[in-house]
Every structure is written in structure tokens, then in C-alpha cells.
Design a protein that fits this description.
Radius of gyration: 23 Å
Strand order of the largest sheet: 1-2-6-3-7-14
Strand content: 25-35%
Order of helices and strands: EEEHEEHEHEEEHEEHEHEHEEEH
Structural class: alpha/beta
Largest sheet: 6 strands, mixed
Shape: elongated
Distance between the termini: 28 Å
Length: 313
């Protein structure tokens, strides 16, 4: 059935029975309208290419075919959300509700490099730091203004210093804007920052540090919005399901990765969660995005086998 939300329609399916397994995915994308006309879907030399084939339409196709092969689909739910790429603000509550009800989550996101499943993910979030200064004529009286761009430059250095790469914390300023004309001291500036963390303690440290940012220039005012919205997915959440997956597909590898998914939310609740069960390929969000067609049947069987194993446990 469709679950309408302000972020678009979510798709929730169940064949009945006591909830045991939630298969999780999303149908939204980062690509703008018109991308398919410029870069159409194509299968050639064992590769499918085109927007969203890896992230994550291929995984959805595999999940549906894998479940269709089961004689008994009771206890299985599929939830395909509409807002994952923007942080799942309108689906998080539903995701968490169904994950707790089912007790196990299989995420059909694309696999890690080489086809590895994803056994851990960093927590991730976005912050926007806004600087309010005061405009003035850049040539006649530059000192009468408060230069928001100069203040933003100070803040970028302070923000970048929050990173702790040795423990997996990245803090990366990614987008900045300031100013109106070349002869005007800029009155406003903004800096957008991508943050990734591996632990709840680092989440709290980074969020507190952003809240404590202070201006370097007299009369400049700083406003911070944002948070680490997706909590880290600890590898402990995937350990049991990964062991089952390796029995079903010997040689299967697991890997912790930096990107986030809706599996972060379910794992943070303590619900066993295994991610990266979708397409084998690469190039997510890029023009060269692809999946390996020859791996699709095997991945569909893997997901179906996990469903059976969870229900029989």
C-alpha cells in the first residue's frame, strides 16, 4: 500500500502473518528530472548502466524477485521510502516502527566494493553555518562593514580542525557562498559541512563543537543548523545476520563503510541489520553508475535465503 507523506509516497507491502523480517529500500534519487533522457538505461557487456541502477533500483528488483521465489512469504514486509537521499525526515518514524515490529532488517542498498555486504556504517549529518555581518562600500569605507566572508573563512578553518580521521571522524566543508557585488563588503555568508562519525561519543562531541562556534570578528553573528541525523551503525548489529549470510554464500565478505542508509536507524535501535544486500556494481550518484547483471540472481537468492533462515530461527 502507499503511505503518503510530505516527502512523497512510501510503499509498504506485507503478505500477512506475524512480522519477522523487514526488507528496506528507497525509490528516490539524487538525479534531476531529464537525466534518463540524457543517459538512458542500457545493458551491454554484462553491465547495466543508467541513473539509479546501482543506488538502488537494482537492489529493489533483486529483492522482489528473491521474495517472489519463496513459496511462503508470510512474516515478510517490504518498505520502500521516498526520502532516503535527503535524510529520511518523513520516513524515519515508519522505518523504526516496522523494524521494531519485525525484529530483523535486510537492507537492499548496493553492495560495497567487490560485492561485500555492509556490516557497519558511519553516522552522518549536514550542518549549515550562517554568518551575519554588515555591508559597506568596499572602497570608500571597508572598515565600516563586518566582513561575513572573512568570518566564514575563520570558521572553515575551525570547523575543519574538528575532524579526527584517526578514529573515523571526518568533518568536511563542502559548499560556501557569500557576497553580492565586488564593491560591497559581504553582509552574509554560509558554509555547508558534511560530517561522518563512527561512534555516539563522536556524534555528541561534534554536535557540541558546532553549537559552541564563536565569531572571530567583532559584531559578526553565527547561527548553526543541523545535526548528525543518522546515528552510526555498529558492526555488532550485523554480526549475527552476516554469519548466516556467509553460510549461505561462502566467501562473502563484509565491510564497514562511510556512507549512511536507513539501516543506520534500525541498527541504532538494537535491531539486527544487514546492509548492502543489493546490486553489485559501483558509481553511486555518478554518471558512470553501473551494476553487474550476472550477480543479480545470486544476490536475489541470498536475500531469500536470509529471509528463510530468520523465520526458521
Amino acid at each position: 500500500m502507499l503511505v503518503e507523506s510530505a516527502g512523497g509516497p512510501h510503499i509498504h507491502w506485507s503478505d500477512g502473518g506475524t512480522p519477522r523480517v523487514l526488507v528496506l529500500g528507497h525509490h528516490d534519487t539524487v538525479f534531476p528530472l531529464g537525466t534518463l533522457a540524457r543517459r538512458p538505461f542500457l545493458v551491454e557487456d554484462g553491465r547495466a548502466t543508467g541513473p539509479r541502477v546501482f543506488d538502488m533500483l537494482g537492489g529493489l528488483v533483486q529483492a522482489i524477485h528473491g521474495l517472489a521465489a519463496l513459496e511462503d512469504r508470510s512474516g515478510v514486509e517490504i518498505l520502500v521510502t521516498a526520502d532516503e537521499e535527503v535524510g529520511s525526515p518523513f520516513s524515519r518514524a515508519l522505518i523504526e516502527e516496522r523494524a521494531l515490529a519485525c525484529g530483523a532488517v535486510l537492507v537492499a542498498e548496493g553492495a560495497a566494493d567487490g560485492g561485500a555486504v555492509k556490516t557497519g556504517r558511519k553516522g552522518c549529518g549536514t550542518f549549515e553555518v550562517s554568518v551575519a555581518g554588515r555591508a559597506s562600500h568596499a572602497g570608500l569605507e571597508p572598515d565600516a562593514g563586518v566582513n561575513a566572508l572573512v568570518e566564514a573563512a575563520h570558521q572553515v578553518l575551525d570547523i575543519a580542525a574538528l575532524a579526527r580521521p584517526e578514529i573515523g571522524t571526518t568533518v568536511t566543508p563542502t559548499v560556501a557562498s557569500a557576497g553580492t557585488l565586488d564593491n560591497v563588503v559581504p553582509a552574509r555568508a554560509t558554509v555547508v559541512v558534511d560530517v561522518r562519525v563512527e561512534s555516539a561519543a563522536e556524534k555528541e562531541r561534534v554536535e557540541s563543537a558546532f553549537a559552541a562556534l564563536t565569531p572571530h570578528l567583532d559584531e559578526a553573528v553565527i547561527t548553526v543548523e543541523g545535526s548528525v541525523g543518522r546515528p552510526p551503525m555498529p558492526e555488532s548489529a550485523a554480526a549475527g545476520l552476516f554469519a548466516v549470510a556467509r553460510q549461505l554464500l561462502p566467501g562473502l565478505e563484509g565491510r564497514a563503510v562511510g556512507g549512511g542508509s536507513d539501516g543506520n536507524f534500525t541498527a541504532a535501535l538494537g535491531v539486527p541489520t544487514l546492509d548492502g544486500l543489493g546490486a553489485v556494481g559501483g558509481g553511486a550518484h555518478a554518471d558512470h553508475e553501473y551494476l553487474l547483471v550476472g550477480s543479480m540472481a545470486e544476490r536475489a537468492r541470498l536475500l531469500a535465503g536470509l529471509v528463510d533462515a530468520i523465520r526458521s530461527a
